[in-house]
From TrEMBL, chain A:
Pfam families: Ni_hydr_CYTB. One of its GO terms (biological process) is respiratory electron transport chain. One of its GO terms (cellular component) is plasma membrane. It comes from Mucilaginibacter oryzae. The lineage of its organism: Bacteria, Pseudomonadati, Bacteroidota, Sphingobacteriia, Sphingobacteriales. It is found in: Cell membrane. Residues 8-209 form the Cytochrome b561 bacterial/Ni-hydrogenase domain. This is Thiosulfate reductase cytochrome b subunit. Signal peptide: none annotated. It is a multi-pass membrane protein. PANTHER family: CYTOCHROME YDHU-RELATED (PTHR30485:SF1), NI/FE-HYDROGENASE 1 B-TYPE CYTOCHROME SUBUNIT (PTHR30485). The chain crosses the membrane at residues 20-36, 42-61, 73-94, 137-157, 177-202.
From TrEMBL, chain B:
Pfam families: Oxidored_molyb. Residues 115-258 form the Oxidoreductase molybdopterin-binding domain. This is DMSO/TMAO reductase YedYZ molybdopterin-dependent catalytic subunit. It comes from Mucilaginibacter oryzae. Transmembrane segments: none annotated. Gene3D superfamilies: Oxidoreductase, molybdopterin-binding domain (3.90.420.10). It comes from the Bacteria.
Amino acid sequence: MKAIKEKHPLLMRWTHWVNFPILTIMIWSGLLIYWASDTYTFSIFGVTFFRFFPQWFYDALHIPRRLAEGMAFHFLFMWFFALNGFLYVSYTIISGQWRELLPNRHSFKEAWQVLLHDLHLRKMAPPQNKYNAAQRIAYTAIIIMGFGSLITGLAIYKPVQFNYLTWLCGGYHLARIWHFALTIGYVLFFVVHVVQVVLAGWNNFRSVISGFEVIDETPQPVIQIKNDESNEKAE
Amino acid sequence: MMKVTKKLSKIFKKRVAKKELTVEQTISRRNFISFGSFAVLAGAAWGGWRWLYKSPVEPNGITGQAHLPLRAVLNTNEKLVRGLYSNNNLVKTYPKEMAAKVVRHNSDIGSAGLVDVDAWKLTVKKSNGEVLNIGIDEIRRLPKTEIVYDFKCVEGWDQISHWGGVKFSDFMAHFKLDAETALEYVGMETPDKQYYVGIDMPSAMHPQTLLAYEVNEKPLPPKHGAPLRLIIPVKYGIKNLKRIGSVNFSNTRPRDYWAEQGYDYYAGL
């Protein structure tokens, strides 16, 4: 028999979806800014594998020569990004939802089992409540990353007035690199996240819009027959 | 209007109370409400974005070329940041050895070609209409201050560089420009008036703001703004005007080259 199981509270669903367009605009306007001094590359042992970003990429997204516009958009939407993050984190703390979110002492071992399961190398996934161990780690990490973007962002935005933040980030130059690296992190997270959501299916996806999952609850018989024989068989 | 809403809510309550919904009904009802609000909100968000993206651009003036709502936000951000601003917040300084030997230079607007240093005079327009013409030797005789700091360009690059000159605040005190420091803005322009900046007085009077005549302990070369340039560590490079020709003071924003082209007027760090 079908039953409703509550999963995501309203505020968590809203902040989740509101974050999507905000972060998209922040990344886009961030690209408009980054283009003006696009010095970062991905190199190992002096061999450059990738340059951020190739010309075709800029051209496809109409990025070049829009620094002033990028800054103006970035410094508006930074407020929404911070406010939305503040709402989510405050709610998670006050409501007690953090218990479902933060990794616990089993999470790191279990996350490995989840990974093996997802890669079809292990049959059974470890038991889970709202989030499995890998989700706990990933979703907590993304919140910390968001906080990191805020701090590194402020460190670049006003490096003299917020000089303690700039110091905390290892200086202005490094703060800009962190700020960029975190953004690349979001994009990678997004790719994995979307693949996982598609694989997890409709019930899971709906729960982030409607708040609940539909589960199949087999009703317990009113009279439980205690039978030694049947217990033995069940074993 | 109130009556209608009350009636409606009564009817609604009655209906809900009338019959308990089956699980299936609850599911489809909640889905309908959630997906419905999701669609409405997504539509509103998209509409809001299109409105902002296509919002009118401000008319050309002291600031220009930015979308009107975005310019309003830049100006609001400026107010908030100026509330936090303090002349006790200093830019980080470095040992001399860390300064770049080859100092980056980005633009020649207003400072292209050579300048006759001996004939050059700094024109200071006082608020009473009086004009001072000051030669470079007179400025060099004032107490010298050096700074090695991380110069920051609005484009995103930064470079540790070493500058020497007179503190702007010392300069103001020496030439008895006290009445001028009470005004809100300083304007500076190149001799050919091709490049110009406006700076709020607190930033100009910051203890690390210099009228610089040396880089790496040598007189400024032409490309770095010989004979005198502004070094203002609490601003992006765009405000660090090279080859200063004239200085003026006002209570309104002086014209500013990049603010006219969509950039934030304040451009503070």
